[in-house]
Amino acid sequence: MTQNTGHRGCDFLNEKIVLPFPPQDVAEMRTEMDVYARFMRHLRSVPSSREEIRILSSIQFVADMMVLSDALVAKMLVDLGLRAPRMAFPETYLEHADQALMRGVHEIGSANESLRDLKLHWDRIGEDRLAAFRRVYPALTEGLFTSV
Predict the structure, then answer these.
(1) Does the residue 139 lie in any domain?
(2) Which helix (H) or strand (E) holds 124?
(3) Which of helix, strand or coil describes residue 42?
(4) Coil, strand or helix: which one is 53?
(5) 55 touches 77 (CB < 8 A)
(6) pLDDT at position 145, please?
(7) 82 is in which domain, residue-wise?
(8) 12-64 pLDDT, tens per residue?
(9) pLDDT score recorded for residue 11
(10) What is the SS3 assignment for 41?
(11) Contact yes or no for 15/2 (Cβ under 8 A)
């Protein structure tokens, strides 16, 4: 795991996980600073040896503590520089990311710069490039949820 230095264009080719860095303008970005501080504090205390699980658990913890959605907390951390495998992000954020990445750069709802950087990171570490198309949606059949 590497702490992100904040320099665009840094290559962490051998690193699967790059931790975020604190926001530059703390006065205007109080919520982001709170999310960052709680995330980094909780990340150290999660009792798991798998870094992806620790990140996911920390995102969910911060979202619960601050009464925010998991996807919003994940988006804030990605905007602050978090780069990790897909497994480390909540499903709701992955749905948003997949839909945004399918749009053109100038379309409404397209991916911002940090999300495009995250996609490049996923490509570098060997994540499935077609994961957005391999979603399993539950379907109601005879009163039971089954996948189609």
Answers:
(1) no
(2) helix 113-125
(3) helix
(4) helix
(5) no
(6) 56
(7) 2-130
(8) 445 899 999 999 988 888 999 999 999 999 999 999 889 999 999 999 999 99
(9) 45
(10) helix
(11) yes
pLDDT tier, 7 (very low <50, low <70, confident <90, very high otherwise): very low
Residue with tokens 């907390």: 73
pLDDT at residue 53, rounded to an integer: 93
Residue 68 lies in a domain: yes
- Specify if 117 maps to a domain: yes
Is pLDDT at 82 greater than 70 in this prediction? yes
22: exposed, middle or buried (Cβ count in 10 Å: 0-12, 13-18, 19+): middle
Q: How many domains does the chain have?
A: 1
Q: Which residues contact 125 (CB under 8 A, 6 or more apart)?
A: 16, 85
Q: Which residues contact 21 (CB under 8 A, 6 or more apart)?
A: 3, 4, 5, 6, 80, 81
Instruction: Tally Cβ neighbours within 10 Å of residue 58.
Output: 22
